[in-house]
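Suppose a colleague, Dr. K., hands you the sequence of a protein chain of 375 amino acids and asks what its three-dimensional shape might be. Before reaching for any lab equipment, you can write down a predicted structure in token form. Begin with the sequence itself:
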Amino acid sequence: MRGILLGSTTLAAVGLLAVDALAADGVTLKISGRYKGAAGVVLSEDLSAATGVAGGDVRAYVFKQDVEVEFEGKTELDNGLTVGAAVQLEGQTDEDQIDSVYAYFSGGFGEIRFGDTEEAYAQFCYLVPSASELFGADSPDFNFSNAGIAGYAGTNGTCYGIDDTSTKLVYFSPTFAGFKFAASFTPDNTEDTRNVLDRVGTRLRDDDEQNSENLSLAAQYAHEFGDATLTLGGGATISFNKEVNPNNTQRARGYNAYAQLELGDLTLGAATELRQNLHADGADAWVYGFGATYDLDPWSFGLGWTHGDYEKAVGENGVGPFNADHDIVSATVTYELVDGISVDGVLEYSDYRSHDAAGPDYRGLSAGLGTLIEF
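The predicted structure, expressed as tokens, is then:
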């Protein structure tokens, strides 16, 4: 009887929503996207012998591009509820062709998202300021350093989290007096979850080193003081299960924090992220940095610095593990041709140093020129 009553209640609720949906305008489809392309050159670099790679084996220039197309369909029901779905598609052939795909319901209560999208604290995250959307010292779309040969990566980042765009449930609160928060839950670190005929319907719990049952929380506060705007925020993401964990590594965790102050055309900002126990070796990574930008229409100028402290980093050729530091200084400039179209430039210095004398080191100076076209 209880099941029948619950079923009847659910059907009634769905029926009410359906009436509202019929009364609303049809779903509106919006297509947008962005093209990013750049050419870069390494002006000088020093690869230590411990990297196992000779400098003459590395090309001194490169062409890169990153293209995304976004599809969004949404409608507003007569009861004020907005319902929609969004798909972000890679514009180039890629193993992960769909960046994100989710449905959402929003209203006075905030917004609920379900699907492949970033965890809560990555959604709110602010990077170290950069004048360019292509380049910078913090998680750039393009960088031209070969520091990844020596160790952890070619760049530093403060917004990575622990489960990227896995299938999850996310809630965003409304803004109250400049304050808002978000929370998300991810069953396992897997995208594109769908029905299959030859696998377990609820997914296995024995995937090698997978961080599962992830909870992410984030909060942000923004306030205007005359011509100045201060934004403060941060969050935490925690995995409650590391699958196939023979080393008994502790649970994976991530923490981030940021502050940004806008004073007219000047922006100052700092950001940091600590990630712990992401893999079976229990290695941690801590990145922090600060930067500034200045807008002088149609020009924007920026200068940023990040420092990465990495445990047990392994180089491109399997050299390591060694603990290491990575410092990046990035000078950026953007010229806006028209709204949504810009030409960007970067001059960047990268210094990767192993803590062990036998470990690999890298130092390099690079430059790049690129364009952003939004459509």
